[in-house]
Write the structure tokens for this entry.
Amino acid sequence: MEVFAAVWDGSVFIVTTFDRFARNMAEANEILTDLSGRGVLFELGGSVYDWNDPFGRLFLQTLAMVAEFETNLGHMRTREGMALAKKNGKLKGKQPKLPEPARRSIRHRYAEGEVSLADLATEYSVGRSTIHRIIHGPETSR
């Protein structure tokens, strides 16, 4: 990250919340070891913690573990909620840009050679890639 390149020996790297600092324990350990090796101090919530001190290391590793746990809980709850919504028919994915009657018309008109792909894209105010997917994709409606 660019932010780590901007610190040098004797500077203090300040973090307001630990869960925004690293995604998991391994990443936190890697970053803190790198900062400590470069002589950079680590501040969290107004207190400076020394990565080389056993108590400072224990405290920061514990925070990293709790932050990773909270992140994993959030991911698990999200997956559970999405599965429940899908089961109840509430999660349908991205909806087509054009309704099925317009899609049928596009396929028919293009197959008959009435109009070009670019003209269809302009007429329906969508990208050429959307028209291409309609013409060459499955003919089932969602």
About this structure: The helical segments are 2-5, 25-37, 54-87, 100-111, 117-124, 128-136. The longest strand covers residues 12-15.
